[in-house]
C-alpha cells in the first residue's frame, strides 16, 4: 500500500465533489471501505443507537504509518491514487481521500492504529480539530471510533430518521460488503447484539445464508460464465423466494457493490416467466472486469458506475441466469410451520434476527424448495434435499452453462430444445379439490396441482411451439374480422402490410378506420384472431421489427390464459390423468407463464411430522 | 329521491335536461354521471332507468309502482344490468358477462339498461371493450356510467357519453340532511362547511371527531386573543396531538379559516350565516377587537399555511409560523 | 293458492324446468321456480334468462288425476331447496298452500315445510304464443336441423353473432345456417304448416338449440315454433322451451358460396372420412392441415406432414372426377365434422381453385351444403 499523500490540487478537483457523510451508514461505509482496502481479513463493526451515539470499526489490516497520521485527516489525502491516470484504473474502494477528514469534521473521532504491531499511535479530533496525539497499544490494524456524529451540525442531525431506519441502512451496507468480500470475516453488532457474523471462509453461499436465511440459501443455484471482457459468478435465488423489491439484487464489480438497473433487468429477464409480476429474485452477482471498462467516479457515494460494453454484460447475465433455471425443477413444498429452526445469525445473539423477521414464525405456512439431484432425477424418483447448506458441487451441467453463456447469440428457443426428460415425478391422481386443484400422490408424498396453471403451462408451450413452427400456412376467413384502428395505427399498418403478410396476417382496408382480417396464420387460435393480430401489430410497433420470440411469448401467454380450464371446473379422473400426463412433458412444468407455481408438494416426512408421528 | 321534481331540488339542470330528453324520447345511448358521493348519482340513474322502462309515465315521471318500476329497484328486472366493483375493481368476468349481454336481445322487450358504478375501476382493456357498444348499441339501450370524476375516465369513453356533472350539495342542504339524521346543528354546520359530500360529512361524526376538533380550534382561536401567551401551549398540547396527519392539519386550517370568516360576517352584520353558531359571543367580541384589515391578513395567513401544508413542510413548524403571523401587530 | 299433487309427476316436471336454472343466476328471482296454479292445471317455470323452460301439469291427464286444485295462485320458490324437498317427501302426494306473506307450506304425510317465496310478478315475463304467428316442425326434423348445423357455430366470444344459428324462413322454406368463419353449414327444410310465416335474421344461440335437442322427447310428433322480437318459442305437448335471440346482423352468407366450379368430384363419404382421420393422426390435434391432390381421374392423394413427426400418404378412389387438376389444403377436422352429419353414401365436392372456398354436399340430396375455406401457404 502506498503511503498517504495529499492529492495534487488538479486531481483533487477532478474528483466529483460532494459530501460523503450523509448519515451514520455513510460513515460506516467509508470506514469499512478503508478497512477493506487495508487488506484486513477481519473487520468488526460496532454501533450504538443506530450509529448516532457511536460507531467503531476495528480491522486487522495494514494500519496507518504513524508519521502520516495527521496527513490522513487533511482533505484529499489518500494513499490510493497517485495521479490522473490512476483515477481510471481504480481497484481499491475508497479512492477519494475524503472520508476521514469529512467524518472527523462532524464528530468526535478517535483513531488508533499500528502498522506493524510494534508501535501504536492514537489521535483524537473534535469537529476536525486535532485534540491530542498519543501512543496506543501496538495492536496490528486500525480502530476508528466515531462518537456524537453531527454534534456540531444540528441541521444534519434533524434530518436523520429513526434509529431503526439508520440501523437498517448500516446493516444493509455491511451485508453488501459481506457479499462482496466473502473472504473477509465481518461482524456487525448493534448495542451489543450481533446482527451479522460471517466466517471469512470465502464461501459466498455461506454469507448469503447468514444474510437471507437458510431457506433462501437452500433455493439458490450457483452460476458462472465468462467472455473476453467479463467473468461473472454468483448465486441466483429460487423464483419462489422472490421479493417485492429490487434491493435483494446485489451486483459486485471487482469487489465493489454497485447499483445497476440495467443489470437488474437482465437478471429478471433471465428468469423468464418464472417470476410473478412485480417480484425480483434474490441474487448476488460478482463481476470481474478490467478496471478500464468501468468508471466509478459518477456519483459521490460511488454506488453507481458507468460501464463500457454494458449491453454485452447484460446479455451474458441474462443468458446465464436463464440457463440456470431452464434445468431446474422448481416445486415449492409445504413446510411444516412450527418445528424447523429459524435460520439464525449466530450463537446467543440470534434473537435480533428473529425480531427483524417476525413473520417467519407467525405465518402458518411458508415455501421451501426441493430439487431432484442429478442422481435421483435420473432414476425417476426425487427426494427432498434436506441437508443444510452445501456448496454446489461442480457437476456436469457447469460446462453446459458455460457453453450457453459463451455464445450468447443462441436464441432461447434453442436453449429450450435441449433433450427434454420429464422433470415431473410420476404421480397418481387421488381426486380433485374445490374443482380447482388436482390431488395426487406417489412414494414421496402428496402433491397438489393447480389445474388452471397446469393447463396454462401446456397451452403456453403449445402456442409457443406453434409460433415457432416452420409451418407457413394461413387460413382464409369466410367472414372477415373487422377491426377499428386509430389514425396512427392505420398509417402504421398501411406501411407494414408486407411485413405482416410475411407473418401470415393479411389485412385489407375497409373504409374509414376499419380494417378487415382476411387471412391469418393457422396457429392463430380460433376466436382470438383479433387479439392475436393486435398483439402482433403492437409488437411490431413497439420494437420496430417483428422479433418473433417476443411476439411468441406474449401471444402464447395471452392465449394460454384464455384457453386454459378455468378454476372451479370439475374434471373426471381420466381428464385429470390426461392433463397431468400432458403437463409432465412440458419443458418448464413448474410455473405457469405468469410465474405462479403449478405444483406444491408435501413429503411423507412432512406429513408425518405434522401428525407428530415423527418428532424431528 | 324518486322523481324528477325531487332531483331538481338538488340538481336542477340535470333533472331538467334528463326529463326533457325522456319526454321527447331523445335519450342519448350513454350517460356519464360524474360527481361526489351523496350528490344523488345512483338515485338519478335508477330514476332514469325507471323513466325509460316504465310504461305508465306521466310527463316523463315514472309511476314507481308498476312491475317495471318495482323490479328496476329490486334488482330483478331482467333487462336492467347493474355492475358494481367486485371488491376493489370491476373484474374481467363481470365485463365478459356484460359483453355477452350486449350480444343478446332483451329478455322482455327491446329496451335494455346498463348501469355501471365506479366506472373508473374498470381496466383500460375492459373499458375499451365497451366502446363499440357505446357507439352503436343494438336495439333501444341506455347505459349510465357512474364515476367520482370524469377525469379518471378514458377519453374514448368520455367522447361517446353525455357527461352530467352532479354539483356538490350546498352547505345548508348538507346541514339539513345531517340534522335530519340526528346530528347536532352546530356540528352539522361545521361538517357541512368542510365538505359537500354527505357520506364524508357523516364520517366526521365517527367517535365525535368533528365535535372534538371543533372545540379545540375554538379554544385556540379564543386563546389567540384573550391569552396570547398560552396559544403556543394550546397548539402543542391540544391542536397538534389531535390533528395528526397532513389531511387533518388541512381540516384544522379550514376550521380556522371558517372562524375568521365568521368574525368577518359578524362585522358586516351577517350573523345568521355564521358556522360557529354557538360561539356568537366570542365572535362578536373578536369582531370588535380585530380590524377588517387584520382579519384579511389572518385569512391570508391561514390560506398560505394551507398551501404550505400541501408541500412538504413539517406540520409543527407550519402551525407555529402561522401562530406568529396571526399574533403580529394584534 | 292451494293444491294437492301427485309427487312423482311433480318431481319429474321440476326436473325438466330445473335444467334452465343456473346456480349463478344474475337476478335473485331466477334462483327460483315459478309455480302458477290455474283451474285446469299447474305451470312450473325455470329460467337463466338465456333459456327458459315452462312445464304444464294438467289437472286431468286422460283418466289420471294429477293435481287437485283448491285455490289458484302463484309463487316463486327457491329451486335449490324446493326440488330436494319434493324429492324426499314421504308420501305419494304433496299439498302446497300459499299464505299471504308468500310463505308456502309444503305438506306430505307427517312432514311439513314452510318455505319463503318471492313475488311471482318479479319473475321475467315470457312472450306468449300468438295464434297465426307459429309454424310446425316434425320433432325428428327439428333435431336433424340442429344436429346438422350446431356443430359449425363459433365457440369464441369475440364475435357473438357467430355463436348462433341463423334461421330464415321464406316461401315455406326454413334455412338454417351456421359458420365459425372457417367453415359453414347450411340446411334447408320445407315447412308444410308454415302459416305464411316469414322472417329473416333470427339468430338463435347454438347452445340453446343443443339444449333443446336434448330435452325434446322423441315420442313427441311435432313442435310448434314461434318467433317473437326477442325470443323464439318451441312448444311441445305440455312443455315450452324459450331462448333469447342474439342481437346484431348475421353476415350475408349467400354470396360466400361460389356459383361456378373448376373441379367436381364425387367420393364415398366413409372412405374419405377414414382417410382424413388417418391423415390427422400425426398432426396431434394441432393444426389439422391436410393436403389433397388429384393423381388422375380416379384417384385422389391425401397427405399430411408434421415436421417433427413424419408424413402420411393416403389414396382415395373417386367415383367421378371432372374439370381441372387439383391441389388444395384445408383443415381436415372441419371436413370430418361435416362428414359426420352427412347421412348419404357419397359426397359431391366442388372446387374453384386452391385459393377459393369449396363446397361439399351429399351427392343425392341438395338440402344440405357445407362450405370450407382453404388453408394457403404464405
Automatic annotation (TrEMBL), chain A:
It comes from the Bacteria. GO terms for cellular component: mismatch repair complex. Residues 335-420 are annotated as: Disordered. Keywords: DNA damage, DNA repair, Endonuclease, Hydrolase, Nuclease. Residues 208-326 form the DNA mismatch repair protein S5 domain. Residues 429-571 form the MutL C-terminal dimerisation domain. One of its GO terms (molecular function) is mismatched DNA binding. One of its GO terms (biological process) is mismatch repair. InterPro entries: DNA_mismatch_repair_CS (IPR014762), DNA_mismatch_repair_MutL (IPR020667), DNA_mismatch_S5_2-like (IPR013507), HATPase_C_sf (IPR036890), MutL/Mlh/PMS (IPR002099), MutL/Mlh/Pms-like (IPR038973), MutL_C (IPR014790), MutL_C_dimsub (IPR042120). Pfam families: DNA_mis_repair, HATPase_c_3, MutL_C. This protein is involved in the repair of mismatches in DNA. It is required for dam-dependent methyl-directed DNA mismatch repair. May act as a 'molecular matchmaker', a protein that promotes the formation of a stable complex between two or more DNA-binding proteins in an ATP-dependent manner without itself being part of a final effector complex. Belongs to the DNA mismatch repair MutL/HexB family. This is DNA mismatch repair protein MutL. It comes from Alkalicoccus urumqiensis (Bacillus urumqiensis).
Automatic annotation (TrEMBL), chain B:
Residues 245-327 form the DNA polymerase III delta subunit C-terminal domain. Keywords: DNA replication, DNA-directed DNA polymerase, Nucleotidyltransferase, Transferase. Its EC number is 2.7.7.7. It comes from the Bacteria. Gene3D superfamilies: 1.20.272.10, P-loop containing nucleotide triphosphate hydrolases (3.40.50.300). GO terms for cellular component: DNA polymerase III complex. This is DNA polymerase III subunit delta'. It comes from Alkalicoccus urumqiensis (Bacillus urumqiensis).
Automatic annotation (TrEMBL), chain C:
Residues 136-251 form the DNA polymerase III beta sliding clamp central domain. Keywords: Cytoplasm, DNA replication, DNA-binding, DNA-directed DNA polymerase, Nucleotidyltransferase, Transferase. It holds the Pfam family DNA_pol3_beta_3. It is found in: Cytoplasm. Residues 255-375 form the DNA polymerase III beta sliding clamp C-terminal domain. Signal peptide: none annotated. GO terms for biological process: DNA strand elongation involved in DNA replication. One of its GO terms (cellular component) is DNA polymerase III complex. The keyword Nucleotidyltransferase applies. Its main location: cytoplasm. GO terms for molecular function: 3'-5' exonuclease activity; DNA binding; DNA-directed DNA polymerase activity. Confers DNA tethering and processivity to DNA polymerases and other proteins. Acts as a clamp, forming a ring around DNA (a reaction catalyzed by the clamp-loading complex) which diffuses in an ATP-independent manner freely and bidirectionally along dsDNA. Initially characterized for its ability to contact the catalytic subunit of DNA polymerase III (Pol III), a complex, multichain enzyme responsible for most of the replicative synthesis in bacteria; Pol III exhibits 3'-5' exonuclease proofreading activity. Belongs to the beta sliding clamp family. This is Beta sliding clamp. The lineage of its organism: Bacteria, Bacillati, Bacillota, Bacilli, Bacillales.
Amino acid at each position: 500500500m502506498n503511503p498517504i499523500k495529499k492529492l495534487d490540487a488538479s486531481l483533487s478537483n477532478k474528483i466529483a465533489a460532494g459530501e460523503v457523510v450523509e448519515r451514520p451508514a455513510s460513515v460506516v461505509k467509508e470506514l469499512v471501505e478503508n478497512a477493506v482496502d487495508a487488506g484486513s481479513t477481519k473487520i468488526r463493526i460496532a454501533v450504538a443507537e443506530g450509529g448516532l451515539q457511536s460507531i467503531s470499526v476495528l480491522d486487522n489490516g495494514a494500519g496507518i504509518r504513524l508519521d502520516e497520521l495527521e496527513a490522513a485527516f487533511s482533505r484529499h489525502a489518500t494513499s490510493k491514487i497517485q495521479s490522473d491516470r490512476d483515477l481510471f484504473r481504480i481497484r481499491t474502494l475508497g479512492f477519494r481521500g475524503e472520508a476521514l477528514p469529512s467524518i472527523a469534521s462532524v464528530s468526535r473521532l478517535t483513531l488508533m492504529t499500528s502498522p506493524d504491531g510494534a508501535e501504536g499511535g492514537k489521535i483524537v479530533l473534535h469537529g476536525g480539530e486535532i485534540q491530542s496525539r498519543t501512543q496506543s497499544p501496538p495492536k496490528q490494524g486500525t480502530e476508528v471510533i466515531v462518537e456524537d456524529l453531527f454534534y456540531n451540525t444540528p441541521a444534519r442531525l434533524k434530518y436523520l430518521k429513526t434509529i431503526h431506519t439508520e440501523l437498517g441502512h448500516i446493516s444493509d451496507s455491511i451485508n453488501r460488503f459481506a457479499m462482496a468480500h466473502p473472504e473477509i470475516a465481518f461482524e456487525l453488532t448493534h448495542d451489543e447484539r450481533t446482527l451479522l457474523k460471517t466466517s471469512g471462509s470465502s464461501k459466498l453461499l455461506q454469507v448469503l445464508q447468514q444474510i437471507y436465511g437458510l431457506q433462501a440459501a437452500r433455493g439458490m443455484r450457483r452460476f458462472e460464465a465468462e467472455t473476453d471482457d467479463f467473468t461473472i459468478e454468483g448465486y441466483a435465488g429460487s423464483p419462489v423466494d422472490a421479493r417485492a423489491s429490487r434491493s435483494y439484487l446485489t451486483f459486485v464489480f471487482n469487489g465493489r457493490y454497485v447499483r445497476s438497473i440495467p443489470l437488474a433487468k437482465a437478471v429478471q429477464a433471465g428468469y423468464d416467466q418464472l417470476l410473478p409480476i412485480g417480484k425480483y429474485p434474490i441474487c448476488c452477482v460478482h463481476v470481474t472486469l478490467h478496471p478500464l471498462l468501468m468508471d466509478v467516479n459518477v456519483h459521490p457515494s460511488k454506488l453507481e458506475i458507468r460501464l463500457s460494453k454494458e449491453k454485452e454484460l447484460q446479455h451474458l447475465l441474462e443468458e446465464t441466469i436463464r440457463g440456470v433455471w431452464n434445468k431446474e425443477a422448481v416445486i415449492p413444498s409445504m413446510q411444516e410451520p412450527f418445528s424447523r429452526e429459524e435460520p439464525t445469525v449466530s450463537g446467543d445473539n440470534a434473537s435480533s434476527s428473529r425480531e427483524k423477521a417476525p413473520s417467519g414464525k407467525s405465518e402458518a405456512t411458508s415455501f421451501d424448495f426441493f430439487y431432484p439431484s442429478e442422481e435421483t432425477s435420473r432414476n425417476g424418483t426425487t427426494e427432498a434435499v434436506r441437508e443444510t447448506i452445501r456448496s454446489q458441487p461442480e457437476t456436469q451441467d457447469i460446462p453446459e452453462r458455460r457453453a450457453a453463456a459463451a455464445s450468447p447469440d443462441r436464441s432461447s428457443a434453442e436453449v429450450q430444445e435441449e433433450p427434454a426428460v420429464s422433470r415431473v415425478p410420476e404421480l397418481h391422481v387421488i381426486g380433485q379439490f374445490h374443482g380447482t386443484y388436482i390431488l395426487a400422490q406417489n412414494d414421496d408424498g402428496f402433491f397438489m396441482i393447480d389445474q388452471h396453471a397446469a393447463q396454462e403451462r401446456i397451452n403456453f408451450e403449445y402456442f409457443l411451439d406453434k409460433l415457432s413452427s416452420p409451418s407457413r400456412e394461413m387460413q382464409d376467413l369466410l367472414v372477415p374480422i373487422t377491426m377499428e384502428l386509430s389514425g396512427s395505427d392505420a398509417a402504421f399498418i398501411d406501411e407494414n402490410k408486407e411485413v405482416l403478410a410475411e407473418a401470415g396476417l393479411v389485412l385489407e382496408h375497409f373504409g374509414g378506420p376499419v380494417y378487415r382480417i382476411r387471412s391469418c396464420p393457422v396457429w392463430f387460435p380460433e376466436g382470438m384472431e383479433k387479439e392475436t393480430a393486435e398483439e402482433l401489430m403492437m409488437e411490431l410497433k413497439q420494437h420496430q421489427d417483428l422479433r418473433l420470440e417476443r411476439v411468441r411469448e406474449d401471444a402464447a401467454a395471452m392465449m394460454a390464459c384464455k384457453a386454459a380450464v378455468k378454476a372451479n371446473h370439475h374434471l373426471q379422473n381420466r381428464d385429470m390423468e390426461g392433463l397431468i400426463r400432458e403437463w409432465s412433458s412440458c419443458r418448464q412444468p413448474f410455473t405457469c407463464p405468469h410465474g405462479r407455481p403449478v405444483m406444491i408438494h408435501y413429503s411423507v416426512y412432512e406429513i408425518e411430522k405434522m401428525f407428530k408421528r415423527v418428532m424431528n | 329521491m324518486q322523481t324528477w321534481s325531487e332531483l331538481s331540488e338538488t340538481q336542477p339542470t340535470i333533472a331538467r335536461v334528463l326529463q326533457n330528453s325522456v319526454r321527447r324520447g331523445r335519450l342519448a345511448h350513454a350517460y356519464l354521471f360524474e360527481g361526489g358521493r351523496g350528490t344523488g348519482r345512483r338515485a338519478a340513474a335508477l330514476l332514469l332507468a325507471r323513466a325509460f322502462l316504465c310504461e305508465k309515465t306521466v310527463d316523463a315521471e315514472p309511476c314507481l309502482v308498476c312491475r317495471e318500476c318495482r323490479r328496476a329497484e329490486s334488482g330483478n328486472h331482467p333487462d336492467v344490468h347493474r355492475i358494481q366493483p367486485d371488491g376493489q375493481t370491476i373484474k374481467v368476468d363481470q365485463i365478459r358477462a356484460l359483453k355477452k349481454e350486449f350480444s343478446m336481445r332483451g329478455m322482455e322487450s327491446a329496451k335494455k339498461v346498463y348501469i355501471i358504478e365506479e366506472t373508473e375501476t374498470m381496466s383500460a382493456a375492459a373499458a375499451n371493450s365497451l366502446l363499440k357498444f357505446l357507439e352503436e348499441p343494438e336495439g333501444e339501450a341506455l347505459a349510465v356510467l357512474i364515476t367520482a370524476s370524469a377525469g379518471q375516465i378514458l377519453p374514448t369513453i368520455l367522447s361517446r357519453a353525455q357527461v352530467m356533472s352532479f354539483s356538490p350539495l350546498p352547505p345548508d342542504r348538507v346541514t339539513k340532511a345531517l340534522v335530519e339524521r340526528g346530528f347536532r346543528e352546530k356540528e352539522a354546520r361545521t361538517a357541512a362547511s368542510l365538505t359537500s359530500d354527505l357520506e364524508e360529512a357523516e364520517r366526521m361524526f365517527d367517535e365525535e371527531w368533528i365535535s372534538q376538533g371543533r372545540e379545540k380550534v375554538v379554544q385556540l382561536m379564543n386563546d389567540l386573543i384573550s391569552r396570547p401567551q398560552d396559544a403556543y401551549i394550546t397548539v402543542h398540547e391540544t391542536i397538534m396531538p389531535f390533528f395528526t396527519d397532513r389531511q387533518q392539519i388541512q381540516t384544522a386550517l379550514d376550521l380556522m379559516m371558517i372562524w375568521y370568516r365568521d368574525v368577518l360576517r359578524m362585522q358586516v352584520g351577517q350573523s345568521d350565516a355564521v358556522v360557529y353558531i354557538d360561539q356568537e359571543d366570542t365572535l362578536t367580541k373578536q369582531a370588535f377587537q380585530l380590524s377588517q384589515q387584520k382579519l384579511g391578513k389572518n385569512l391570508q395567513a391561514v390560506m398560505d399555511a394551507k398551501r404550505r401544508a400541501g408541500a412538504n413542510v413539517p406540520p409543527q413548524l407550519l402551525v407555529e409560523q402561522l401562530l406568529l403571523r396571526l399574533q403580529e401587530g394584534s | 293458492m292451494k293444491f294437492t299433487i301427485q309427487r312423482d309427476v311433480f318431481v319429474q316436471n321440476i326436473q325438466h324446468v330445473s335444467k334452465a336454472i343456473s346456480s349463478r343466476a344474475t337476478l335473485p328471482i331466477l334462483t327460483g321456480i315459478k309455480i302458477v296454479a290455474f283451474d285446469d292445471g299447474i305451470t312450473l317455470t325455470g329460467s337463466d334468462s338465456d333459456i327458459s323452460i315452462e312445464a304444464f301439469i294438467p289437472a286431468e291427464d286422460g283418466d289420471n288425476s294429477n293435481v287437485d286444485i283448491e285455490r289458484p295462485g302463484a309463487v316463486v320458490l327457491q329451486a335449490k331447496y324446493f326440488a330436494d324437498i319434493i324429492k324426499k317427501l314421504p308420501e305419494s302426494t304433496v299439498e302446497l298452500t300459499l299464505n299471504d306473506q308468500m310463505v308456502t307450506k309444503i305438506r306430505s304425510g307427517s312432514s311439513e315445510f314452510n318455505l319463503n317465496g318471492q313475488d311471482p310478478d318479479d319473475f321475467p315475463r315470457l312472450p306468449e304464443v300468438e295464434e297465426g304467428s307459429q309454424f310446425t316442425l316434425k320433432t325428428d326434423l327439428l333435431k336433424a336441423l340442429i344436429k346438422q348445423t350446431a356443430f359449425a357455430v363459433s365457440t369464441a366470444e369475440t364475435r357473438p353473432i357467430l355463436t348462433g344459428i341463423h334461421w330464415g324462413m321464406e316461401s315455406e322454406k326454413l334455412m338454417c345456417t351456421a359458420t365459425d368463419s372457417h367453415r359453414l353449414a347450411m340446411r334447408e327444410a320445407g315447412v308444410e304448416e308454415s302459416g305464411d310465416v316469414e322472417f329473416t335474421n333470427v339468430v338463435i344461440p347454438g347452445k340453446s338449440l343443443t339444449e333443446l335437442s336434448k330435452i325434446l322427447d322423441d315420442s313427441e310428433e311435432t313442435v310448434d315454433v314461434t318467433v317473437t322480437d326477442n325470443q323464439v318459442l318451441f312448444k311441445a305437448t305440455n312443455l315450452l322451451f324459450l331462448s333469447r335471440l342474439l342481437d346484431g346482423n348475421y353476415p350475408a352468407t349467400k354470396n360466400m358460396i361460389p356459383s361456378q366450379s373448376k373441379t367436381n368430384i364425387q367420393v364415398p363419404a366413409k372412405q374419405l372420412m377414414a382417410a382424413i382421420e388417418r391423415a390427422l393422426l400425426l398432426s396431434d390435434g394441432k393444426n389439422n392441415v391436410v393436403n389433397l391432390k388429384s393423381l388422375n381421374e380416379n384417384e385422389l392423394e391425401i397427405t399430411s406432414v408434421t415436421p417433427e413427426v413424419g408424413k402420411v400418404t393416403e389414396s382415395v378412389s373417386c367415383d367421378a372426377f371432372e374439370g381441372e387438376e387439383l391441389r388444395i389444403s384445408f383443415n381436415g377436422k372441419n371436413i370430418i365434422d361435416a362428414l359426420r352429419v352427412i347421412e348419404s353414401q357419397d359426397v359431391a365436392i366442388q372446387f374453384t381453385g386452391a385459393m377459393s372456398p369449396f363446397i361439399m354436399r351429399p351427392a343425392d340430396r341438395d338440402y344440405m351444403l357445407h362450405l370450407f375455406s382453404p388453408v394457403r401457404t404464405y
